[in-house]
Amino acid sequence: MKTLKNLMGGLLFASIFCLGSCDPIPTQLPELPLERVTPYFSEAAEVQTIDTSFYQVKNAQGELIGTLLYSMPYSETVKGYNGNTPLVIALDAEGRIKQVVMLPNHETPRFVERVVDGGLFKAWDGLTVEEALGKNVDAISGATYTSNGVKGSLAMRLEAYQRQLKKEHVEPTFWQRLLGKLNK
Asked: How many contiguous H segments (helices) and E segments (strands) does the chain have?
């Protein structure tokens, strides 16, 4: 009985400790209207929400033509000059970056303009996710905070996307291993 109380006390303490360090429970992605997809994929006929992770875009024949990734909430801890730098990342059917676009934000418009004019968003065009994550892209002079926010948002979202694609190969968590042993 004493061992059970110690085990329960330890589990309670560990679960309270874990609350601050565990990944948030994802919410369901909202449906994405077709007109919000056509700027990236003109031949889009269908948008499919994949779990709570991303959107797949298909043509009229039902063939995959691309994927849309939104950086938020994955990059909500990344800040530019005046806050978050939310992005949409369009991947083509082969998984190469087709386009990176900044969504509405609180950055100073002239800094965003410098980032756009400096070609930062085009720095990843045509790269695979792995290539984009490995590429060292310089910040745009005069808009360093905004540039670093964009680079950080892109990196966090692409890393999360890689994990989402490999989720069947994810190592079990401490709790999954512990509970698995207790159930045997």
From this structure: 5, 5
Q: How many domains does the chain have?
A: 1
In single-letter form, the type of residue at position 129 comes to: V
**What is the arithmetic mean of pLDDT over 24-38?**
74
Compute the CA torsion angle 4, 8, 11, 12 (nearest 10 deg).
-170
- Quickly list DSSP for 41-90: -TT--EEEEETTTEEEEE-TTS-EEEEEEE-TTTTTT---SSS---EEEE
With respect to residue 87, please indicate whether it lies within any of the assigned structural domains: yes
What's the confidence (pLDDT) of residue 177? 57
Residues 6+ apart with CB under 8 A from 120: 137, 139, 140, 147, 150, 151
Find where tokens 């698995």 sit.
180
Please tell me which residue, 4 or 89, carries the higher pLDDT value: 89
Is 12 within a domain? no
Full residue range of the structural domain in which residue 33 is found? 27-167
User: Averaged over 34-59, what is the pLDDT?
Assistant: 90
Q: Is residue 138 part of a domain?
A: yes
For the chain, strand residue ranges (E) read: 46-50, 54-58, 64-70, 87-92, 97-102
Residues of the chain with pLDDT > 70, as a percent, come to: 76
